[in-house]
Design brief:
Layout lengths: L7 E4 L5 H12 L3 H6 L3 H20 L5 E5 L5 E10 L5 H15 L3 H14 L5 E9 L8 H16 L3 E5 L5 H5 L4 E7 L6 E7 L3
């Protein structure tokens, strides 16, 4: 009998940083927050890729908070970025991160800072994991890859006894997270015509 080959979840490798960033950029290109922060369609994918590369390299760090789901041949199907909060970065590392992101976001950087401030005000005020991004290759949607990655991250947080939080500007995603045990903690209307951001939290179980 031939063994059934299935998809697997593992930590992202450092050689995969660019590929993971590209996958997430494609997955989130039409997200309301992405369209608001990156309003020029022709530039959006490149700007998102650059932002995700910075986040993976300096905050999530592969094998710590960057998870990927791959098919039996190793092709990336989905990815999730989890950030441990409070940041496990030195003051200098955080300053360098802010400088890099400011360079990528340009005049939209103050908008992003507003998003961050609103989000972290509603987030658990104790050590926890923040789901920064999760996405599936558009060509591989509809097979439960996103839920598998979400459950994987939740299981780790539960094992550590830590809560998790995330935010979404896509109303259709709220039910997806609710089914995984998340509850709405706050809703924030972003400035300058931005979308509504819903912050969701989940206690460890």
């Amino acid at each position: 009998m031939t063994a059934v080959r299935t998809a697997a979840i593992r930590g992202a490798r450092r050689t995969e940083v660019a590929a993971v960033a590209e996958l997430l950029a494609a997955a989130m290109a039409e997200d309301p927050l992405s369209r608001w922060l990156h309003p020029v369609p022709e530039w959006r994918l490149a700007e998102l890729r650059g932002s995700f590369e910075v986040e993976i390299e300096r905050v999530c760090r592969p094998a710590l908070g960057a998870h990927v789901l791959v098919d039996p041949d190793g092709a990336l199907l989905a990815a999730a970025l989890w950030t441990p909060l409070p940041y496990r970065l030195s003051w200098l590392q955080q300053a360098r991160l802010r400088t890099a992101l400011r360079g990528l976001h340009g005049e939209r950087d103050p908008y992003l800072q507003h998003v961050s401030a609103a989000t972290f005000t509603a987030a658990p005020q104790r050590p926890h994991w923040h789901l920064l991004a999760i996405g599936t290759d558009p060509a591989a949607r509809g097979h439960g890859h996103g839920r598998a990655l979400l459950d994987f991250g939740i299981a780790r947080a539960d094992a550590e006894g830590l809560p998790t939080h995330l935010e979404t500007t896509e109303p259709a995603r709220i039910g997806f997270y609710a089914r995984a045990g998340y509850r709405i903690a706050a809703e924030v209307d972003l400035p300058y015509g931005g979308p509504r951001s819903t912050i969701l939290c989940r206690e460890a179980s």
